[in-house]
DNA-directed RNA polymerase subunit alpha
Amino acid sequence: MPLSGKIGLALVGFWILAAILGPLVAPYPPGAFVSEEVFAGSTSQFWFGSDFLGRDVLSRLLVGARLTMGLSAIAVAIAVALGTGLALTAAVGPRWLDELLSRAMDTLISIPSKIFALVLVAAFGSSVLLLTLIVAITYVPGNFRIARSLAVGLARLDYVEVARARGEGRIHIALVEMLPNMIRPLCADIGLRFVFIVLLLSGLSFLGLGLQPPEADLGALVRENVSGLAEGALAIMAPAVAIASLTVGVNLLIDAATQGNVK
């Protein structure tokens, strides 16, 4: 594995551990007012200082990382399952179904993802469940296009034709003959979708349309402490660096994997 891949793996591994164990080792309850000073600097008591209400930034950061990574992982799983499922259906189904699904996805993908998500959030609200579904649906078309291009190419190969000649059904061909040979390129797409969803969720939260108080993901932590930007407060710098390091780490790991250097 190249150095960039090792750095990416270390960053991703760190944030996975933070998401799993962070809330258990957080020094204070995330909503507790523990400091008399707002936007305090780093001290032995508050490693990342305090936020605009005197809450411990480190504790809120660890809980926010779990929400950001958890919701993003669930959303990307839904998006990939729907997109790949529809792509396989289009590849093995009749031509009219392929055309119908492809044109529908082309229509959706022509709408910028943030605008599409903003419209859906404004229409249906931003509870945790709805927000996850909205973000997932936003990225279904992108996954569909990649999965369909892979599936259509596989559908013309000899071993798939042999399966058809044996009388295998469309479901068997899609799930047994084609899907296993799509896994590796789809894994790279899953990583990219995860990055896009992290950024979209953080962007929506920064605009006040994501998770609502008292819940707070990394984007919400940036928004609620934006008044400390002029002071360079750790309360705003820490979640911003967390978002950047997470997305950069995933990108470095994907880059190493797609180059075929991950052993």
Summary: The chain has one domain: 3-23+49-258. The CA atoms of residues 111 and 138 lie 9 Å apart. The chain has a mean pLDDT of 87.
